[in-house]
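A quick aside before the break. I want you to see a complete sequence-to-structure record at least once, exactly as it would be stored in a machine-readable document. Don't worry about memorizing anything.
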Amino acid sequence: MNLLQILLLILIAAFCGSLGMAISGFHRGGCIISVVMGFIGAMVGTYLSGLVGLPDILTIQVGGASFPVIWSIIGAVIFSLPLSLLVGGRKKK
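That is the input. The structure line, written in tokens, reads:
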């Protein structure tokens, strides 16, 4: 896997993480938090889909690695909902 493929995976993870955070209403952090949420969402989503026995939906192949887009978004939503409840909202000035 070369540098361009790694950057493409990071870009896909950022998109999935930011979309999952937008759906759940979690608005803390920036681009790096979106990337982290995308990768954590991919792990959580594929783990839960494996438990239930659901197939991978919309998987993107990049350099021999597959990234499950739909399960990443669903996993990011599932991960960020309790996180937003624990951290709380932003305080208005």
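Two observations worth writing down. The chain has a mean pLDDT of 87. Residues 13-23+30-83 form one domain. We'll return to this after the break.
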